[in-house]
Amino acid sequence: xxxxxxxxxxxxxxxxxxxxxxxxxxxxxxxxxxxxxxxxxxxxxxxxxxxxxxxxxxxxxxxxxxxxxxxxxxxxxxxxxxxxxxxxxxxxxxxxxxxxxxxxxxxxxxxxxxxxxxxxxxxxxxxxxxxxxxxxxxxxxxxxxxxxxxxxxxxxxxxxxxxxxxxxxxxxxxxxxxxxxxxxxxxxxxxxxxxxxxxxxxxxxxxxxxxxxxxxxxxxxxxxxxxxxxxxxxxxxxxxxxxxxxxxxxxxxxxxxxxxxxxxxxxxxxxxxxxxxxxxxxxxxxxxxxxxxxxxxxxxxxxxxxxxxxxxxxxxxxxxxxxxxxxxxxxxxxxxxxxxxxxxxxxxxxxxxxxxxxxxxxxxxxxxxxxxxxxxxxxxxxxxxxxxxxxxxxxxxxxxxxxxxxxxxxxxxxxxxxxxxxxxxxxxxxxxxxxxxxxxxxxxxxxxxxxxxxxxxxxxxxxxxxxxxxxxxxxxxxxxxxxxxxxxxxxxxxxxxxxxxxxxxxxxxxxxxxxxxxxxxxxxxxxxxxxxxxxxxxxxxxxxxxxxxxxxxxxxxxxxxxxxxxxxxxxxxxxxxxxxxxxxxxxxxxxxxxxxxxxxxxxxxxxxxxxxxxxxxxxxxxxxxxxxxxxxxxxxxxxxxxxxxxxxxxxxxxxxxxxxxxxxxxxxxxx
Amino acid sequence: xxxxxxxxxxxxxxxxxxxxxxxxxxxxxxxxxxxxxxxxxxxxxxxxxxxxxxxxxxxxxxxxxxxxxxxxxxxxxxxxxxxxxxxxxxxxxxxxxxxxxxxxxxxxxxxxxxxxxxxxxxxxxxxxxxxxxxxxxxxxxxxxxxxxxxxxxxxxxxxxxxxxxxxxxxxxxxxxxxxxxxxxxxxxxxxxxxxxxxxxxxxxxxxxxxxxxxxxxxxxxxxxxxxxxxxxxxxxxxxxxxxxxxxxxxxxxxxxxxxxxxxxxxxxxxxxxxxxxxxxxxxxxxxxxxxxxxxxxxxxxxxxxxxxxxxxxxxxxxxxxxxxxxxxxxxxxxxxxxxxxxxxxxxxxxxxxxxxxxxxxxxxxxxxxxxxxxxxxxxxxxxxxxxxxxxxxxxxxxxxxxxxxxxxxxxxxxxxxxxxxxxxxxxxxxxxxxxxxxxxxxxxxxxxxxxxxxxxxxxxxxxxxxxxxxxxxxxxxxxxxxxxxxxxxxxxxxxxxxxxxxxxxxxxxxxxxxxxxxxxxxxxxxxxxxxxxxxxxxxxxxxxxxxxxxxxxxxxxxxxxxxxxxxxxxxxxxxxxxxxxxxxxxxxxxxxxxxxxxxxxxxxxxxxxxxxxxxxxxxxxxxxxxxxxxxxxxxxxxxxxxxxxxxxxxxxxxxxxxxxxxxxxxxxxxx
Lengths: 671, 671
Fold this sequence. Notes:
The structure is a homodimer of 671-residue chains. With 671 residues, chain A is an alpha+beta fold. The first copy, chain A, has 4 domains: 43-58 and 93-241; 279-452, no CATH class; 457-552, Sandwich (Maltose phosphorylase, domain 3), CATH 2.60.420; 557-670, no CATH class. Chain A is built from 19 helices and 25 strands. In chain A, strands 5, 16, 17, 18, 19, 20, 21, 23, 24 and 25 form a 10-stranded antiparallel sheet that branches. In chain A, strands 1-6-7-11-14-13 form a 6-stranded mixed sheet. The first copy, chain A, has a 6-stranded antiparallel sheet with strand order 2-8-9-10-15-12. Chain A is globular, with a radius of gyration of 25 Å. Chains A and B meet through α16, β16 and β22 of A and α16, β15 and β21 of B.
């Protein structure tokens, strides 16, 4: 299974086109201004500033009197004071600030892949030239070190994110090449990757990234260019991780000695943050920083697929099981604890204190998409769809102008404001973050939906997600265009039709969503037959021009329970319909949502109706519930039968919460 | 209402005598060794070390070549490194380390008040001499400043705890004087209080303590000595708190200027930690550090009682309402959040992340006892009894050798070990804390039960807590000895008998416990009659020698619900019997206690039976429950009727948890 080519996919879907247009018309222009420090009232990025400073420095190099900057540690993040005029030649921002420009370029590339936009492309070309101008002749590029003294470059892999930035550079470069055919950025990326190969490749130091992403990026670069050394480097990064002697520990000791400041060794728990406490083949639990863990797992799945490495595939299976079957919120969010933005223990999934970072859900989509390419089973696509429709989309307001970093499953604004244990939770999305990982990461995911919706091999086209639009692919020796109409998330009606110049034999593999009746009848044309395997209908035979496949997947309102092992959720249920998890919001149901109780006997009176929020027509669910009477006689009293009133609750898609007046929200309701 | 004299009370009770003996025979000797750094494997205290160093310094003062120590900030806590030999002339420990010796002396005094123990008294006398030798001629005493440079003494009231130590010194001095008639320590305490009166009294700087306790201590000193200036100082400390310009803010700015290090002003939220964001008469919510808040409220109640200040009494009522009716755990624990060891928002009472510091529950007993003296109503005694039997006693193991600082209502050891959000929670009591506030605080409370059990005015003796033993008091002009037999917490049977030389008229006021039937018949002798008011039976008339009053207060097993406003507890109930809250422990019920569900229909099958834990015979409760079947088909699945098994759960008193093998514990069970 391979991804389809970017430029062969068109999205034209009643739901996703609106999202995609937000990315194109709101997110990308907004983020470009943010990268250029042009947004009033938002924290400054300094991202483009740093590239410009590095480019100027490069231009001066070799002139009389030029002196290389001497190493002086700017620290993990450096921002000028409120009254301070930024030094045009100094680095500002987080150590990983470069990555924001790369993420933006990658997202822009996905937009350009399916529609011409000369203005956007010109902006991108300008950014590419700036990046190229900032690169050192050696191929190295990271403005943090270029501006602060190169002698310490690539010597603090644990903390200083050069390989993370390289990963994002490569992702952007591949995307931009695939979208436009222009190889300028690809050559910059290859230059850096070649430099790193010399430094950290088979003949170099046995390092690996402190924040993963280079693994999957190098695998992609290798697939795109056919150059196996990038795959080799990705594999080294994976296989070295956590082996003894621990590279991060050795590096840390060395830097401490250089600085004359002894530091204690990292504990195994601390190394877990980087997934570096033990070799990946021995890891059987998703631990540490959730984004890092999901990116590592994604890279592992890519390398396992490209090298056929079975033990590595087994390790992917173990991480998948742990992340998805023991540590995933029902929204597809991962990373339950704010401490280290990390995976908590198995089944520890608090609703109010959840971290569930948007980027971690994006990472889970990456991982799920790659597991799917490794072994087509609808479970992976189900999880991908769940994360996409819930924990990812929740990261962005419905007008595309503000963002959540943290995605709780329960929120009470008064409590969040006063309880410092919830200080990481917001109940209003923010315009831009100083540490702006989530907004551009969302952009690059949502702009690239096509590569998750479809996959192919020589004779099969897989439809993993039903997203309206089309995909072109050569199948059975003829150019085939598959058009898709999908009513998800409004209903489960999907229609697929095939345009091809002459009859041809190939296989169309359609996912039967996990949320529907697996025996839903699917109408297929004469001349083809199907078998179902691992949640996919493989429809094979001789296809003719105009052939169509239709299905109306039942999408009832359902109540979901969590495993009894989830302490938080015992005695509770959540409402979902299709891939969408629903929540109750104060705007529709008043305060004290914890008083609501679902009553299965009244589920027959559920109604689905359209509700407009922020310009989106969304399917809402009206459900009769019981509401415990509040107030009463004091803090503690002898137990008496609960006094409940009948109440009709209106539930909205979780992703749409916090788009109206600030208020309470709750996913899990008592049952 | 006034407290009874210490030496007039004897405790002889099947339950409390065992506790008191632990205090006398285990806690006091153990803590004395701890204060003298004589316990292997425990953190060193340096408490006695500091007093010795200060005494030596005093002895050298005036000799040729003597130089006063110049100010050098030791910091909030200073301990020597592992390989470092402590400097015998240097201060070590926390800035409030002196208070531990005072607390120990106070507890010892309560023991000595009712029984002769020449060896213990000699140890105390020696400690008193050491303290006297450490005091400066001016009356000032705080070894932190004496050893580190006096020029900064009393200039960082917010942080540096001199007035806190003074408060504990006064409490110890009053107790030791009342117990032994010896005034040596009382004179030391008066000397310090007189010094502080000059510095911070009506003609001094308008400061007040950063950690309250001086308020109630000064009130006690004033009552004991009849000197009104101590009450005046207590009142100033209370009335100045939180007024503008804020003293702490001004002091902080001044110190910052002296140190040349500008610091930002405290936010109102930060000032809440010290209950100093607004004047106490305007405070209507219990906020900030829970121990501080309870100590302040205790001092306020004392001053309101002694001055008849009605607005201050109203302020006490408001703090009481907030602390007890909106922020108290069912165990009587207060301070729901670890952030600042503080009160959280109203009705925010998480079970697993609870802080509920032992010292804060001790503080609530202080506050309740003082509210009772302000206005006799059984509500105060009910809360006092609740805190005592649950959140306080839980602080100590049943062998008196280890201690909890934090008292959660739910504990899962595996989760606590792995989830850093619960890192403040222990599931095994610790031997001794570097910051050792709780063990000696518990000791001074438990050794002084008598002053909470009884109160008096000229014609009335109140029985607030039924504790076996006797109390002597002159009533109606004759010396009366009231003997009490109480079977609480085993049953509600209480018998009171009166020994008096001749018939006399007075009133015996007996609390009708909140946990029993208010119409329980009480057998009284002929010649007396009673009325019930605010939860007390006032039994008046002509009492004769040998008269007895008996009652058998029904003590059924009851299920208690929390207000629907407590999100944590909706759909849950807790089991109690009399004043004792029960919990389920893994030792009796296996793991996964969250799977248990109470079923009201089966409560008739409840059995109370004796269970021996760590040498204590305790009443346990055996109750049929349902147990949700664990395991199942994955993390999320369509809701189906729960599969439950019948199970007989054994519940033990909450205070007895964590005295057997380490394991899960849970107070609130699903219902």
